[in-house]
Amino acid sequence: MSPRAEPIRCHWAAAGDALMCAYHDTEWGVPLHDDRGLFEFLCLEGAQAGLSWRTVLAKRAHYRKLFHDFEIARVAAMSDRELEKLLLDPGIIRNRLKVYSARDNAIAAREAIAEFGSLDGYLWSFVDGKTLVNRWRDSSQVPASTALSDRMSKALRKRRLRPRPRAAPSACPGRSWRTPSGRRA
After folding, report:
1. Contact 90, 83 (CB under 8 A)
2. Catalytic residue among 28, 40, 53, 177, which?
3. Is 71 a catalytic residue?
4. Is the pLDDT at 33 greater than 60, yes or no?
5. 40-43: long-range pairs with CB below 8 Å, 24+
6. pLDDT-based confidence at 65, cuts 50/70/90?
7. Phi, psi (5° rounding) for residue 91?
């Protein structure tokens, strides 16, 4: 029996880092239609601002524990006292804006769910429910922002949904922060 070939990976996951490789192979670019999962990525993207994605992935399990497995209603109900306590926990990124933005995003997500029926329905509406498949061959081809990301960023800010404490188009580029986008070729 021949050895199993390694999958083709993006440059950022090709360095042999097991955590990044596992994320790349099982989650990156895989369409996601689960409100809890979409909310989790929204919050984790917020935590990443200014840091590497690997840093966030290494703390992901602890984030899930502290933020009630990203159950939107439970995060929306977190008190200031609970959030202040989280700022003392070295298992997460202890930035006040980032920690409090999880609750703010949960409240805004509930409003979007009330209007659109689901967070999934709202987020996927930006791409008409269709997966985007980009054909970039090199990281230098990936734009910092696109017309779609600009439109999405503006709409998210208007709803007070922030993948980053100060949502910028680069926070939700064509990849639409790793969710309604397709695997790179």
Report:
1. no
2. 53
3. no
4. yes
5. 40/64, 40/70, 41/163, 41/177, 41/178, 41/179, 42/105, 42/109, 42/161, 42/163, 42/177, 43/67, 43/70, 43/75, 43/101, 43/102, 43/105
6. very high
7. -80, -10
The pair of structure tokens assigned to 11 is 């440059």
Whole-number Å distance between alpha carbons of 64 and 4: 33
At 154, which amino acid appears? Answer: K
**Contact criterion met (CB below 8 Å) for 134 and 185:** yes
Which tokens in the block code for residue 154?
């503006």
| C-alpha triplet 40, 43, 49: angle, nearest 5° | 135
Q: Is 45 a catalytic residue?
A: yes
Which residue of the set 28, 40, 45, 124 is catalytic? 45
Which sign does the torsion angle of CA 59, 62, 181, 172 carry? negative
In this prediction, residue 9 carries a pLDDT of 83
Instruction: Give the separation between CA 41 and CA 47, rounded to whole angstroms.
Output: 10
pLDDT one-digit tens code per residue, 131-144 = 887 777 777 887 87
Structural tokens at position 22: 């596992």
Residue 11's pLDDT is what?
Answer: 80
Among the options 23, 63, 122, 177, which is catalytic? 23
